[in-house]
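Data follows
____________
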Amino acid sequence: MITNNNDQCALALSALEHVYDPEIGLNVVDLGLIYQVDFDEVNGKIFCAMTLTTQFCPMGESIRDNVIRSLEGSFPGFGVEVDLVFDPPWSYERISERGKQFLGH
């Protein structure tokens, strides 16, 4: 996880724990889908780089939109830009220990 503001990032990740991949039933943080969250305090912007479990995820747009709404709700007045990236590709190893327990692994 990359960030330019650890304190703000902790708040962002806490908010993003409420955004779920509906096909898996696990939130985007524990799935390891969030790669970067940066804050531009001067211009009131948040940049988030995230991935999906597959480039062809049928719920990808919905998940991305929910990430935007979650960050906007947690940081009123900030604009949010979310980029979907696939490098590095997502892998099972990115899932948190809590996520693996949830999935029964």
Remarks:
- The longest strand covers residues 34-40.
- Residues 60-74 form the longest helix (15 residues).
- Residues 2-102 form a domain with the GMP Synthetase; Chain A, domain 3 fold (CATH 3.30.300.130).
